[in-house]
Amino acid sequence: MSWILLGIVVVVVVWLIMTYNTLVSLRQRGRQAFSDIDVQLKQRHDLVPNLVETVKGYAAHERGTLDAVIAARNAAITAQSRGPADQAVAEAALGASLGKLFALAEAYPDLKANTNFVELQGQLADLEDKIAAARRFFNNSVAEYNASRESIPAAFFAASMGFHPMEFFNLEEGEKKLVTQTPQVKF
Q1: Which of 32, 111, 142, 166 lies at a CB distance of 3.0 to 4.6 Å from 58, suitable for a disulfide?
Q2: Is 94 contained in some domain?
Q3: Residue 95's closest CA among 160, 51, 136, 63?
Q4: Tens-digit pLDDT profile for residues 153-165
Q5: pTM confidence score
Q6: 110, 113, 48, 59 alpha-carbon torsion, rounded to 10°
């Protein structure tokens, strides 16, 4: 009888250890995925001043648009320390201001023909694709982690062991409109 009880205890302990290790692994994958987003966003933030400087030479009297892009970039950099939800909002605002910058470029044929501007615009488009892919991977990792955390047996001890829910990197409905909305440029 004592061997059976000991066997049951060993099975339960092994099961709990496996569940704990699974949660640790999934949490780490989520952190790594967020780090991948962070790397792409830093590259985007580094590219913005080059874009603004290129546009300045052609559209110097469009100071308000250029200042808005720089302000949105700075807000996005500041939001990096506040978590995925705040960062997603700041990045959406940056995306919207960049959309206005590119709409502004449409009014300047010389700027559209500038090889530096075209190259920077291409790099930014490539980065946007990479950011979207990294965001999808991160959100998938977060969903997997949160589902494992809320499943039995982890649901019984996850919170007490420091496994808290992770936030998604999503655009809110208002921010989605900012990013997808065609900017209006008036002269």
Answers
A1: 111
A2: yes
A3: 51
A4: 898 889 998 999 9
A5: 0.72
A6: 10
